[in-house]
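Same chain as my last thread, 421 residues:
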Amino acid sequence: MRFEKFNYPTIDALRQKIQALGVDIPLSERLDVLGAPLALGKITLHNRLVVQPMEGCDGTPDGRPGELTARRYGRFAQGGAGLIWFEAVAIVPEGRAGPRQLWLHEQNLDSFQRLVASIKEISFKANGFAPPVILQATHSGRYARPESLPAARFSDDALRALEERFGRAARLAAAAGFDGMDVKCCHGYLLCELLSAYGRPGAYGGPFENRVGLLVNGVRAAKASAPSDFIVTTRLNVYDGFAYPDGFGMDPAGGLGEDMTEPLRLIEILHKELGMDLLNITMGCPYTNAHVNRPFDMGSYEPPEHPLEGVGRLFALAGQVQKEFPALAVIATGPSYLRQYGAQLAAGAVEQGLCKLVGFGRLALACPDFANDILRRGALDPGRCCLACGRCSLLMRAGSTAGCAVRDEVYRELYRKDVQA
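reply #2:
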């Protein structure tokens, strides 16, 4: 069915469209399931709602969190989510996606320590608990845009050196007070791109074991460098949305159908061999096929599918992982497109065993206290939800700082100044 914008005045209207499309999007009114605690090793999450990593592009030139960074995470902390997945933080300066991307190193460790302590303090005062905070450690690969630095070159030796850098990042993250670290492997960035390096020669291309090597060895290095109770995880693309051999998780016969053989094989290594108990599932690349990981109403192109089909895929493939590895805590993503009905999708997915946690990204920018709205009010206010309009991404592409230009007055003004001017 051709692309259509969101137009569902009632949840029954949404159900009718889901049925007409023949997609599987579970909806449940039992929102109380989202308030159930979840044990992760020695850590207990107070609910099943997660703030996903959404970059603000508001760091300082030396990688420290800026004023808007602190503002954003203070709002997330008050919002009541059980887990805060901190945005992408570069492990080396030449791996930054831009000159204002955060970058953790010894000289700015103190600023990250203050920010993490503030997140926990604010949440404890507002909600009675301090949520675990997981840092997303990244190298942006071909999308790196550091200022006044040469473009990164990815010889085998350069890639091998990054394995140790993930270990160093984990040590620094633990020292900063983070409860865990994500070895980022999604959305077309370096580790994700290597997963589909079928034709690359050398130690990081060709056979499966080579292509997953930087991720697997980066996880090993992180686990070896941090305390035993430190969570080491990954936000992982299980479906790239590019026809084989250009994408991971794709049907080798061609087309855009998925083939979960290699993603499940990789997850088995991470979970059963390396002891990873938490996994954040995602798909696509925001630079080239944004509709895959962030189904939208307004963007730079018309998506080739109905947005609800994209939402269905995000939850179906997360569910396949969860059912294959029942002891793993899988985070599903993509409910923000459903606006106020994202709460019912989250509840339905947890209730049906498609995941144990549900992450909200764009909605968290629009309505940072979404978790408390769901758990305390029993509903999301449609007047405060994300509209899937893409203005947060337009701010980023314009070189500004990113946030919700519809619901947040700070970013409305930035949008007028930096995008519309």
